Amino acid sequence: MKILVAGGGTGGHVYPAIAIMEELSRQKDETQIAYIGTKRGIEARILPSYPKIHFYKIHIRGFARRRLFQNLGAILLLTFAVAETLRIILRFRPQLIIGMGGYASFPAVFLGSLLKKPLGISTVIHEQNIEAGLANRFLYPFVDEVLVSYQHSKRYFPRAKRIVITGNPIRKEFLLTKRETSIYHRFGLDPEKKTVLVFGGSHGAAILTQAVMRAREKLSKSEQIQILLITGNKAKERSINKEFSSPGVNNLVVFRYIDRMSDAFAIADLIVSRAGATTLAEITSCGKPALLVPWGKAANEHQWKNARYLESQNACAVVAEKDMTSLAFLTYIKETVMNKEKLVQMAQNSWQLGRRQASTTILGEIRTLLEGAQT
């Protein structure tokens, strides 16, 4: 069996794809897996470490709102990407194409749907966010099945041939990694202190880094709280570590990137992050309380909609970027982390929202679809 997965650009599309491909690679049958993504996205850095996955890079760029000339260039690249993708499909000959959303998924899924009869290709798309993305909204009438993470998302696919709520798949390591003293020591942290994990997704978030920096003097005086900050930026990591090298600052640890984010999640008592769909799937599957700061420039405000859903279930608190002053940041962290009852309640609500079997559910849908195509 040959399966082609398409998507990329950000961790929000790539990491769920990896979770699905890891599940597929564990199967006993002779499944060959290939991935189509961008040359500059996070997939170009991560996928080379997965030898069982054939990685094909295409030249493609997303569309920019209200920027005509940039979009003309994007259209030309899209034409080129379609030609590149067609060659990949004819060479690899997949029985199934899975689109994980985003502009990088469009050529493969669209071509797969057109080639369904002559090449026997089935097509599936997966939507991670509550509000469906542009690519998936365009593609869904043509595909055999639509998989969504939330009940609310079904309204964006009214004419889907088949639609199933699966949840958003996360990597297995998040479910298996437990809180251990060795992890604290590896990060240079104290197991006796409450740990706040601050990160902004695969590319980092300057506003979260700035909030920590503005509050660093008061944070450095805390004997009960420590911060694990992930910047997503190498230059920023170096400059912050240089500032933190001064005496007395020993409860703030900074990294540009952590390969095993599951380790950071395991020791986190509170998570401060953006509200991307994959991040929220990881938070809820691990049952972590969170302070979410949605990215204001996300398409169709989808991060705000993701965050508001969790907030409505009392699984997190939501703060606007403009309100992320050092005082607000410090106050919330202290009020939450030191309030055991609030922390436990938020963690329980988060856990109840988690869909820890998403990868298994998606695999079951894939099997059913392929078996139906063969009859």
Features:
Rossmann fold, 375 residues, alpha/beta, 16% strand, 17 helices, 13 strands, 2 domains, 6-stranded parallel sheet
Description:
- By secondary structure, the protein is an alpha/beta fold.
- The chain has 2 domains: 2-168 and 356-374, Rossmann fold (3-Layer(aba) Sandwich), CATH 3.40.50.2000; 173-353, Rossmann fold.
- 45% of the residues lie in helices and 16% in strands.
- The radius of gyration is 21 Å and the shape is elongated.
- The chain starts with a strand and ends with a helix.
**Element pattern in H and E:** EHEHEHEHHEHEEHHEHHEHEHEHEHEHHH
CA radius of gyration? 21 Å
* Overall body shape: elongated
Number of strands: 13
The CATH class of the largest domain = Alpha Beta
Strand content: 15-25%
CATH architecture of the largest domain: 3-Layer(aba) Sandwich
Average pLDDT level: 88
Q: Decide which structural class fits the backbone.
A: alpha/beta
Strand order of the largest sheet: 3-2-1-4-5-6-7
Tell me about the largest β-sheet.
Answer: 7 strands, parallel
- Classified in CATH, the superfamily of the largest domain is Glycogen Phosphorylase B
* Structure annotation, total helices: 17
What is the assembly state of the chains in this entry? single chain
User: Separation of termini?
Assistant: 15 Å
CATH topology of the largest domain: Rossmann fold
- Poorly predicted regions: none
Helix content: 40-55%
> How many domains make up the 3D coordinates?
2
